[in-house]
């Protein structure tokens, strides 16, 4: 499911972002080299007077608005390569500049849009200069990005199903030895098997995801955070689903009595609470992490109450 639906969508968004960035860079380079000259002041801030002169030059009929046809005349003078034609480039640029969606660009929209573009382009240039591995991307590079990682259709479904089957098979074979190892470790260390199973083992198995999430979040970029959240959601979902499937297979094949209703119920409660919380929010400040941690502790308490106090199995 991830490979078929989510990953192609992420790749599509990434390619669209790459394409848009190169379109904007191309327009800015053309404007500075062939139309109005430098659009930055000596202090590095956008020169709004130069942007207004550019607006007047693009606005050929002097009606104080840049139409699609006028923008297309500018775009046709820029060599974008075969990756995108002039019509598509105009559509994407118009979508970014036309804030009120009236199919025309006013002077304020033009100035604000180009100011934002210049800021964005300056940040990217500074970032590439500060990176020792930074390279100048050409339109040939963009064409390669647009061609790679395409959705595989039926093969993506088969590959995803194969991974799920492989994961279930591996967990089915390794689940019993892992349980035996946990029991022996708890006996030799003198630590409760409950503590080892529900605290130490989850911390150890999820350590990589946790450190990766912290590292990506430290960049404080929405794209990094979004990709990290996708990975976390996938890991949580697959851990719960595969764990439940493996337990169910073992119980069925070994004819073991079902004693996990309390555990499954607690997992379902936590997932529902977190799912509802995430459904009605688009941003997650730092304080939202504390209820999540409290839910983990509460889940341990609920398991103890249901199994040891109420004898619910």
Automatic annotation (TrEMBL):
Protein name (Swiss-Prot/TrEMBL): Sodium/calcium exchanger NCL1-like isoform X1
PANTHER family the record matches: CALCIUM-BINDING EF-HAND PROTEIN (PTHR31503:SF79), VACUOLAR CALCIUM ION TRANSPORTER (PTHR31503)
Membrane topology classification: Multi-pass membrane protein
Gene that this polypeptide is encoded by: LOC101490110
Organism of this sequence: Cicer arietinum
Compartment(s) of residence: Endomembrane system
EF-hand domain mapped to chain residues: 46-81, 85-120
GO molecular function, one term: calcium:proton antiporter activity
Gene3D superfamilies referenced in this protein's UniProt entry, alphabetically: EF-hand
InterPro entries found in the cross-reference section: CaH_exchang (IPR004713), EF-hand-dom_pair (IPR011992), EF_Hand_1_Ca_BS (IPR018247), EF_hand_dom (IPR002048), NaCa_Exmemb (IPR004837)
Keyword Endoplasmic reticulum: no
TM region positions: 154-175, 187-205, 232-253, 260-280, 286-306
Record key words, sorted: Antiport, Calcium, Ion transport, Membrane, Transmembrane, Transmembrane helix, Transport
Listed SUPFAM superfamilies: EF-hand (SSF47473)
């Amino acid at each position: 499911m991830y490979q078929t639906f989510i990953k192609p969508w992420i790749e599509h968004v990434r390619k669209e972002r790459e394409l848009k960035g190169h379109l904007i860079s191309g327009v800015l380079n053309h404007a500075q080299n062939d139309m109005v000259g430098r659009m930055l002041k000596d202090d590095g801030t956008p020169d709004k007077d130069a942007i207004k002169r550019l607006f007047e030059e693009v606005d050929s009929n002097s009606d104080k608005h840049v139409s699609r046809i006028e923008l297309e005349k500018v775009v046709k003078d820029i060599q974008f390569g075969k990756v995108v034609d002039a019509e598509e480039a105009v559509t994407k640029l118009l979508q970014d500049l036309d804030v009120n969606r009236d199919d025309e660009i006013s002077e304020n929209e033009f100035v604000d849009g180009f100011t934002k573009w210049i800021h964005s382009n300056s940040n990217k240039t500074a970032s590439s200069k500060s990176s020792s591995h930074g390279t100048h991307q050409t339109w040939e590079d963009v064409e390669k990005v647009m061609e790679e990682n395409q959705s595989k259709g039926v093969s993506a479904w088969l590959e995803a199903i194969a991974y799920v089957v492989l994961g279930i098979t591996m967990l089915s074979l390794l689940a019993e030895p892992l349980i035996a190892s946990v029991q022996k470790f708890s006996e030799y260390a003198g630590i409760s098997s409950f503590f080892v199973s529900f605290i130490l083992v989850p911390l150890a198995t999820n350590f990589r995801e946790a450190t990766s999430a912290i590292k990506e979040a430290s960049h404080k970029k929405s794209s990094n955070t979004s990709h990290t959240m996708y990975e976390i959601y996938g890991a949580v979902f697959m851990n719960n689903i595969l764990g439940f499937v493996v337990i169910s297979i073992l119980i069925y094949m070994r004819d073991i009595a079902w004693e996990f209703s309390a555990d499954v119920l607690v997992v379902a409660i936590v997932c529902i609470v977190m799912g509802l919380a995430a459904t009605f929010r688009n941003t997650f400040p730092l304080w939202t992490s504390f209820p999540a941690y409290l839910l983990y502790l509460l889940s341990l308490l609920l398991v103890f109450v249901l199994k040891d106090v109420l004898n619910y199995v």
